[in-house]
Amino acid sequence: MTRTESDVTQAFVSLTGRLAGGADVVELLTDLTADCVRLLDVSSAGLLLADARAVLHVMAASSERTRELEVFQVQRADGPCRDSYLAGTAISAPDLSQETARWPLFVPHARQAGFASVHALPMRMLGTRLGTLGLFGTEVGALSPADLGLGQALADVASVALVQDRTTSDQKLLNEQLQTALSSRVVIEQAKGVLAQQGEIDMVGAFRTLRLYARDHNQRLTDVARAVVGRELLGRQLLEHAAARRPTGR
After folding, report:
1. What is the CA radius of gyration of the chain?
2. Cα angle vertex 15, ends 71, 170, to 5°?
3. N- to C-terminal Cα distance for the chain?
4. Would you call 125 helix, strand, or coil by DSSP?
5. CA 155 to the chain's CA centroid
6. Tell me, what CATH number does 220's domain have?
7. Are residues 121 and 217 located together in one domain of the fold?
8. Dist. CA 99–CA 220, nearest whole Å
9. Does the pTM of the predicted model rise above 0.85?
10. Residues 161, 95 share a domain
11. Which residues pair with 125 in a beta bridge?
12. Residues contacting residue 238 through CB under 8 Å, at least 6 positions apart
């Protein structure tokens, strides 16, 4: 793929600027997975985060297909992203067809989903393993050293986003910060479910509806999601807002 130095600089300036401005962590990390697709030679990206018990959860993904594959890895305890977290190192599988013995459950499922290669990069902070950034390709092939380096830099930005107080050495506080991020992800998924059911739309459309309302009303994504789940904000209000903002076309 072709990318310019300006593309990379713009991505990092945007991410770090929004991080400094207190952007909603779930929205920021979702954008980060989209940046991975835009800047690296991959077709999709997903981010797994561990809780205080070292149980992995899906935190963000660039597509619903990737989110489902990451959930599969967690539920079946089988796959490169899980192994990368446990080892704390990068794991590359440039040709999944050669990795069936290594991941007997994950490989067939990933290939059925259309993926042919996976690269998993560790997320760490202050000596603590936080999770993994998974990079998924639809074609066989290894990532270049430049792509791997940039991918790790994006994983490091994700780690900083998750740990708001970068100077703390308090493990309890670190766990609390990670749990807050995971709780935000849960409430957003719940709100997406409400909107998907009420609007008869898919989860991708539900997320876009939620995000559009939050941005247009200058509110944090998690706060809007929490209001929808708590019925302080009706789902139809968000759906009507999205419909009003949709181009009519001619």
Report:
1. 18
2. 70
3. 35
4. strand
5. 10
6. 1.10.10
7. no
8. 41
9. no
10. yes
11. 128
12. 195, 209, 210, 212, 213, 224, 228
pLDDT tens-place string over residues 124-159: 887 789 999 999 999 999 999 999 999 999 998 888
Tens digit of pLDDT for each residue in 24-39?
Answer: 888 888 989 999 999 9
Closest of 217, 236, 218, 214 to residue 226, by C-alpha: 214
pLDDT (0 to 100) of residue 11: 82
The sign of the CA dihedral 19, 66, 215, 35 is positive
- Quote the DSSP letter at residue 55: -
Structure tokens at 192: 């997406």
Answer yes or no: are the C-beta atoms of 205 and 196 closer than 8 Å. yes
* CA pair distance 175, 25, nearest whole angstrom: 15
* 240 and 196 share one domain: yes
State the CATH number of the domain containing residue 89: 3.30.450.40
Residues contacting residue 104 through CB under 8 Å, at least 6 positions apart: 78
The two structure tokens encoding residue 176:
């609390």
| 3-state SS record for 193-249 | HHHHHHHCCCHHHHHHHHHHHHHHCCCCHHHHHHHHHCCCCCHHHHHHHHHHHCCCC
Structural element, H or E, at residue 151: helix 145-162
- Give phi and psi for 63, each to the nearest 5: -155, 160
Q: Which domain holds residue 228?
A: 183-245
Of the three residues 166, 196, 223, the one that is the final residue of a domain is 166
